[in-house]
Every structure is written in structure tokens, then in C-alpha cells.
């Protein structure tokens, strides 16, 4: 039954098994803006259109701080054309070319993406490819033990703390890659995005610490909250405390249908960077009223909330392109292709704003009957 916290309806019953349908269906598929150095001419960008760049993508392997080998995907602007279209894990195609050399005539803004529970690194390739066409370098790791292919191999009591580390390690690996040396530099930092459990990841990285004692108090009132048992297990094995997975190099965060209020609620006020939250009005996994909105309300830095009232949980992914069996793909929901146009435009506009670019002003927010916009 829904209950109220500070006037906000909540039951916090995130259904991990339902979100883990990625696994079932794929095996059958289951503060201030970023300071920038002013140049003689500011970069101008048009978020309403595909960017000017051809897009290349490639996958690779890297080893994280725990010695685990992980898959990683890059999307980047390229001047190469006429290359075959990339097949993600040899399963399906997007629009990006298979490989090609990154265009490093100038430094590229970097975005890291964290996939959802039982998802995969390329689950929202529509957005990754669009960002790369506008000159962004996008990087996404598979969270080992939490993908459609290996779901359950890693316990959530490990993942709530390791997932943010995976993103940090993926960024450090990018910096070490010779092919991208001229494209990126560490002092420029990166933005972080994430969907569902990845939304939790992007909020933790933005600066919200996890306080196991505060979570335990919350969970005595709302024991059905998704991560309660996992955090209790972690505390039993490692001791109570405040565990921080913040990366100060991050200059903006974009949680999409985020989970995890029970874990991060007490630390949201610590966030100091700009945030763009996304939510779906028909999402019954991380609902607006008991997941997205409480997380948004707890943040005190510059923040924006974009709700698509007719969108579901998987509207923010390419799930319906891969296997259109979700409710989100059917009647009564915003068609994914329409939602993706809105998500692409406003995400690019938000990032462009933080970078000091021009051309984003009419897109944040854009004018649409399919959008509810809040800005604080």
C-alpha cells in the first residue's frame, strides 16, 4: 500500500525480478553550471537534429580495480564513412559504424552511462549514438554479474557499492587508451547518466553517500523497499558507516527512472552539481510518486525533472526495438520512437548548457504535449 514520506506517496516496491526481464528476453531477451574557459567563439549546437558527425562504436575489455574483466563500449565522432554498421554483441544493429578512428581534432566532452538491473551497456544505444553525433565521447561498461547475460552472478549487496566504482574505473580506462589520448583529458571530467539501477549509480556518483544506519531506520518503516535487505547484508559483513562513491570529476548527472531512494535518501542534499531527472508516468517499476519524485525532491543543487506521462520504464531504452513484448511497447504508451526524440533533444540541450555551448535554449524544455517539466 502506498504511504507518505514528507507528503510524497511512496511504497518503494521496486520489482527487481520484473526489471530483470532484460535477462529473460535476451536469452530470449530479457550548484553552478560547469565552469568553462571562454573561447573566442562559443560552440553552437542544434539539439533538434542529428549531429554533424558520423558515429563509430567499438567494444573492448578492461579490468576493474577488483581484478574483474569487464566489457566496455565506446561511441565517438568519426570522419570515417562507408564502414559496415556495428552489431551489438552480434545480435542487432543500431546506426553506428563498426569501428573507425575517433576524430580528435579537438577535445571531446565525455559521458559515462550505467545500464539498468539486468540490462547491458548498449541498452539505450539510441541516445549514445545521438550524443556521439554531436561530438560527445560516450562510454558504457557492462556491470559484471548484473547484465542480461549473467544476471545474479553478483549479489546486490556487492553491486550497490561496486557499480559506481565500475563507472569510475571505466573513465580511468578511457584516459589510459592510446587511441583516445588526443580526444580527452582528465581535468575536463565527465557527465554521468544511468537508467533504473544505473540511475541510482549516477546519483551516488554525483555525491549522495549511502548511510547504512539511516537506511536501516528507513527500512524499519518500509521493509519492502528494494535494497533494504542488501544494504543490511553489506552492513553485517562490513560494518555500519557512511559509504561514499562520489567522483569529483563529474560535472553533471542524468538519472533516468532511478531506483534506490531507500539507499540514498539521507545523502541527496550533499549533491552540488546540476541534475536532470527523467521519469515515466506509466512506470510501475520506479514510479514517479515513490521513486523518481522523492529522489528529485531531496536534491538541493540546480535540478530539472522531465516526466513523460505516457512513458513506461523501458521507454528510455531500446527494448522495444529488440523485442517488442513489453507493455511499454504497446497501446496506451508513448511510442518509443517519439519518446526518444524528446529524450535525445533535451539530454543534448542539458549537457550543452553545462558546457557553455550555444543553441540549446529552445530545447530545455522543448514544447511538447508529451512532457511535464519542473525546474528548481
Shape: globular
Tell me, rounded to a whole number, the average pLDDT.
91
Percent in helix: 25-40%
CATH class: Alpha Beta
- Could you name the CATH homologous superfamily? Alpha/Beta hydrolase fold, catalytic domain
Number of helices: 11
How are the strands of the biggest sheet laid out side by side?
5-6-3-4-8-7-9-12-13-14-15
Count of all domains = 1
Radius of gyration: 19 Å
Give a quick account of the main beta sheet: strands, pairing sense, barrel closure.
11 strands, mixed
CATH topology grouping: Rossmann fold
What is the first-to-last residue Cα distance? 30 Å
Descriptive key words:
single chain, 376 residues, alpha/beta, Rossmann fold, eleven-stranded mixed sheet, two-stranded antiparallel ribbon, 15 strands, 29% helix, disordered N terminus
Task: Please outline the helices and strands.
Blueprint lengths: L2 E3 L2 E3 L5 H4 L1 H6 L27 E10 L5 E10 L6 E4 L3 E7 L11 E5 L10 H9 L3 E5 L14 H21 L13 E6 L1 H10 L3 E2 H10 L6 H11 L3 E2 L6 E7 L4 H4 L10 E6 L7 H11 L4 E6 L10 H4 L13 H20 L16 E4 L1
Parallel strand pairs: 3-6, 7-8, 7-9, 9-12, 12-13, 13-14
Antiparallel strand pairs: 1-2, 3-4, 4-8, 5-6, 10-11, 14-15
Helix pairs in contact: 3-11, 4-7, 6-7
Amino acid at each position: 500500500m502506498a504511504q507518505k514520506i514528507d507528503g510524497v506517496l511512496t511504497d518503494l516496491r521496486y520489482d527487481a525480478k520484473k526489471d530483470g526481464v532484460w535477462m529473460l528476453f535476451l536469452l530470449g531477451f530479457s550548484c553552478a553550471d560547469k565552469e568553462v574557459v571562454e573561447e573566442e567563439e562559443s560552440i553552437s549546437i542544434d539539439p533538434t537534429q542529428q549531429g554533424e558527425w558520423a558515429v563509430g562504436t567499438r567494444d573492448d575489455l578492461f579490468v576493474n580495480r577488483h581484478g574483474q574483466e569487464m566489457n566496455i563500449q565506446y561511441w565517438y565522432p568519426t570522419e570515417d564513412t562507408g564502414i559496415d554498421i556495428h552489431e551489438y554483441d552480434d545480435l542487432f544493429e543500431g546506426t553506428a559504424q563498426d569501428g573507425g578512428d575517433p576524430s580528435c581534432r579537438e577535445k571531446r566532452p565525455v559521458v559515462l552511462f550505467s545500464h539498468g538491473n539486468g540490462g547491458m551497456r548498449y541498452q539505450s544505444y539510441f541516445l549514445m549514438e545521438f550524443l556521439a553525433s554531436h561530438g560527445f565521447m560516450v562510454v558504457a561498461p557492462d556491470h559484471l554479474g548484473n547484465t542480461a547475460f549473467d544476471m545474479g552472478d553478483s549479489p546486490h549487496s556487492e553491486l550497490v557499492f561496486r557499480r559506481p566504482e565500475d563507472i569510475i574505473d571505466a573513465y580511468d580506462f578511457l584516459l589510459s587508451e592510446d587511441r583516445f589520448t588526443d580526444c580527452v583529458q582528465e581535468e575536463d571530467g565527465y557527465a554521468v547518466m544511468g537508467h533504473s539501477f544505473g540511475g541510482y549509480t549516477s546519483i551516488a556518483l554525483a555525491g549522495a553517500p549511502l548511510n547504512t544506519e539511516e537506511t536501516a531506520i528507513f527500512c524499519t518503516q518500509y521493509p519492502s523497499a528494494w535494497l533494504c535487505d542488501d544494504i543490511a547484508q553489506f552492513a553485517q559483513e562490513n560494518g555500519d558507516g557512511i559509504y561514499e562513491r562520489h567522483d569529483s570529476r563529474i560535472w553533471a548527472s542524468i538519472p533516468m527512472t532511478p531506483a534506490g531512494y531507500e539507499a540514498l535518501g539521507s545523502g541527496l542534499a550533499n549533491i552540488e552539481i546540476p541534475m536532470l531527472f527523467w521519469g515515466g508516468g506509466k512506470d510501475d517499476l520506479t514510479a514517479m510518486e515513490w521513486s523518481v519524485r522523492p529522489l528529485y525532491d531531496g536534491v538541493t543543487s540546480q535540478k530539472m525533472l522531465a516526466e513523460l506521462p505516457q512513458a513506461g520504464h523501458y521507454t528510455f531504452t531500446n527494448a522495444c526495438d529488440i523485442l517488442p513484448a513489453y507493455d511499454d511497447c504497446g497501446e496506451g504508451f508513448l511510442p518509443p520512437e517519439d519518446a526518444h526524440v524528446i529524450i535525445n533533444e533535451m539530454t543534448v540541450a542539458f549537457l550543452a548548457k553545462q558546457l557553455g555551448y550555444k543553441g540549446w535554449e529552445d530545447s530545455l524544455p522543448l514544447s511538447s504535449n508529451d512532457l511535464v517539466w519542473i525546474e528548481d
